[in-house]
Structure formats: structure tokens, C-alpha cells
């Protein structure tokens, strides 16, 4: 395994450098997957929507039956304190987390009183400005709310996404369009997804089967303010296959145009370029 990049972690009141061990064989999170996280970015000395990511991790903890121990304003303060430990302009991933240590009702449910918190921050480069994604359709699907806690940003949801990514990689693609249980497109394995057709921007309606991303909502607002029509609607694979442009949004890369969907080549287009410009202006307070 490669070395970890520069990392600082706040746990139990102190900052620790590197990758300190934090759970043991008896920890509920390790055994039964009771953990949640959020992911935000620092780059070019800005941290767009960091406050919302710090608030969402508390919502995720509650959705998984844990008891958040930190005020979201305090998480934000810690995040900024952690960022200041790195060189100016460092490209960072900021990840607050909660997990459960102890067993609760019937062992399988965690003890909410055993909820623990950390925030880990590490160097991870932002993708190049001209980077793009290639996509294929995943055979794996998003679970519904009845099947999995899709209202939380929880680690337990990601092995399914990993299956879709592995399947895509085996076919020579970088990411995958993932459908919901009804067969409509929900999102990518690691990001939300948009298409552009005849100048109209469309994205799958927030139907509760996928993360209604903070970056997704930010791009919708920025594009609408810029005069675009953005439709949140039901979209199927053919809608994407016939699109003029496709792009993905998420905290990690912010926006990535799609250059290929299965056998169809696409060009990174003017709407995704404009959306990127709008986001960077927003991030820099311009
Ligand atoms: N969907 C999935 C599966 C993700 O992992 C992410 C990134 N966390 C997103 C969507 C985008 O969400 P956000 O913009 O809130 O980071």
C-alpha cells in the first residue's frame, strides 16, 4: 500500500499527525458498519459550502441511530483549524466522521451513547481543469430507503458503489451511471449527474434513492441564477445517451464533464464550462 499523504486528525481534543489507530476489534463500527462521514474540500485557499458539509454529518449520524456529539459550528471551527496546519493553497479533503463504539439493543443496533467523532484532513490533489470522465451503465442499482439508510452519508452504502466502479473499470470506463430500483438514472457511483439537451439542464429528481448532493444543489442554484433552465426530473439511460452534454458534480472534483458514455463519444461542452466558471467565482466570493 502507498504511504498516506500528509494527514492531520482531530480526535478527543487533540490534533494527531498521520493515521492513528482509533477503533478496536470490539468497536461496533468495525464489526457492523455503524459509521458516517462527510467530505468537503479546501483548494486555492477556499472551502466552499464547508458549513453545509459540517451540518450534514450530524444529520447522517442521526439517520444511522447515533447521537452526534458535536455542534456543527464547532465542527466547522475544527475543520478550519485543521486546514491551517497545511501550506497555503493546499488541496485537501476534509472528512468529519461519527462512528459507534458500543453495542446497543440486541447487539446489532449500536448504543447511541457510544457515538464518537473525529475529523481527518489530508492532501488530495484536485483533478486537472481539463479532466473528463468516461461512463458506462452499471448493472448494480441504488437501494431504496426501505433497503438501506440512503438518507445518510454512510460508509455501509459504498461497497455497492464500489461494485459499480469495479465493473466499469473492468470494461475500461472511469465511472458508471447507476439506476434506481425502478430503472431510472439516479447518479454516478461517486457523484451526482446532469445532462444538457437543447440548452436545458436536467438532473435526476431527488427521489430519495441517492444523495441530494450539496454540490448538486449549489450548481442548480448557480445555473438558474445565470439564466439556465434546470429541470429535476425522471431521466432514463436513453436521455443520457442522446444528451448534448453530460457532467458530474460532487464535493471531490466539483464538476467533471463526460467525454464518453459507452460507445458514444461526447465533447466537454459550453454549459459545463460555464458551470465550472460560475462555481469557481462562487467559491472565491466573486
Ligand atoms: N453521490 C455519491 C454516491 C457521492 O459519494 C457523492 C460525493 N460525496 C455525491 C453524490 C455528491 O455529493 P456532495 O456534492 O454532497 O459531495
Cofactors, ions and other ligands in the entry: 4'-deoxy-4'-aminopyridoxal-5'-phosphate
- CATH topology of the largest domain: the name is D-amino Acid Aminotransferase, Chain A, domain 2
- Compute the number of strand runs: 15
Beta-strand content: 25-35%
Give the C-level CATH assignment of the largest domain: Alpha Beta
Major beta-sheet overview: 9 strands, mixed
What do the pLDDT scores average to? 97
Structural category is alpha+beta
Q: Could you name the ranges where pLDDT drops below 50 across 5 or more consecutive residues?
A: none
> Radius of gyration over alpha carbons?
19 Å
Globally, the shape reads: globular
Order of helices and strands: EEHEEHHEEEHEEEEHEHEEEH
What is the CATH architecture term of the largest domain? Alpha-Beta Barrel
Number of helices: 7
CATH fourth-tier homologous superfamily of the largest domain: D-amino Acid Aminotransferase, subunit A, domain 2
Between the first and last Cα atoms, what is the distance in angstroms?
41 Å
Helix percentage range: 25-40%
Q: What is the total number of structural domains?
A: 2
3D structure, described in words:
This protein is α+β, with helices and mostly antiparallel strands. The chain folds into two domains: 7-123, 2-Layer Sandwich (D-amino Acid Aminotransferase, Chain A, domain 1), CATH 3.30.470.10; 133-283, D-amino Acid Aminotransferase, subunit A, domain 2 (D-amino Acid Aminotransferase, Chain A, domain 2). The chain is 26% helix and 29% strand. It has helices at 28-32, 50-63, 72-83, 158-170, 214-225, 237-241, 270-283, and strands at 7-11, 14-17, 35-37, 40-42, 92-100, 115-123, 133-141, 175-179, 185-188, 192-197, 200-204, 230-233, 245-250, 254-261, 264-265. Strands 7, 8, 9, 10, 11, 12, 13, 14 and 15 form a nine-stranded mixed β-sheet that branches. The model has no long low-confidence stretch (mean pLDDT 97). The structure holds 4'-deoxy-4'-aminopyridoxal-5'-phosphate.
Amino acid at each position: 500500500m502507498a504511504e498516506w499523504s500528509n494527514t492531520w486528525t482531530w480526535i478527543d481534543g487533540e490534533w494527531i499527525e498521520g493515521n492513528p489507530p482509533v477503533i478496536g476489534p470490539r468497536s461496533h463500527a468495525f464489526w457492523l458498519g455503524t459509521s458516517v462521514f462527510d467530505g468537503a474540500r479546501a483548494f486555492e485557499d477556499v472551502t466552499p459550502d464547508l458549513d453545509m458539509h459540517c451540518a450534514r454529518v450530524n444529520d447522517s449520524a442521526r439517520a444511522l441511530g447515533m447521537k452526534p456529539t458535536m455542534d456543527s459550528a464547532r465542527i466547522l471551527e475544527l475543520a478550519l483549524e485543521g486546514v491551517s496546519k497545511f501550506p497555503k493553497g493546499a488541496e485537501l479533503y476534509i472528512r468529519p466522521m461519527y462512528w459507534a463504539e458500543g453495542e446497543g439493543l440486541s447487539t446489532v443496533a449500536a448504543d447511541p451513547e457510544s457515538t464518537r467523532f473525529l475529523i481527518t484532513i489530508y492532501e488530495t490533489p484536485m483533478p486537472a481543469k481539463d479532466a473528463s470522465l468516461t461512463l458506462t451503465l452499471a448493472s448494480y442499482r441504488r437501494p431504496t430507503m426501505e433497503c438501506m439508510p440512503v438518507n445518510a452519508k454512510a460508509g455501509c452504502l459504498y461497497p455497492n458503489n464500489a461494485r459499480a466502479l469495479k465493473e466499469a473499470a473492468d470494461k475500461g470506463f472511469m465511472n458508471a451511471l447507476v439506476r434506481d430500483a425502478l430503472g431510472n438514472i439516479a447518479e454516478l457511483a461517486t457523484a451526482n449527474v446532469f445532462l444538457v439537451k437543447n440548452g436545458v439542464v436536467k438532473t435526476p429528481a431527488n427521489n430519495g434513492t441517492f444523495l441530494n448532493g450539496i454540490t448538486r444543489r449549489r450548481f442548480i442554484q448557480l445555473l438558474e441564477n445565470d439564466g439556465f433552465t434546470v429541470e429535476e426530473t425522471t431521466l432514463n439511460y436513453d436521455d443520457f445517451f442522446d444528451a448534448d452534454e453530460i457532467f458530474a458534480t460532487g464535493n471531490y472534483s466539483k464538476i467533471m464533464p463526460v467525454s464518453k458514455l459507452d460507445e458514444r463519444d461526447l465533447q466537454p461542452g459550453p454549459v459545463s464550462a460555464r458551470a465550472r466558471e460560475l462555481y469557481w467565482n462562487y467559491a472565491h466570493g466573486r
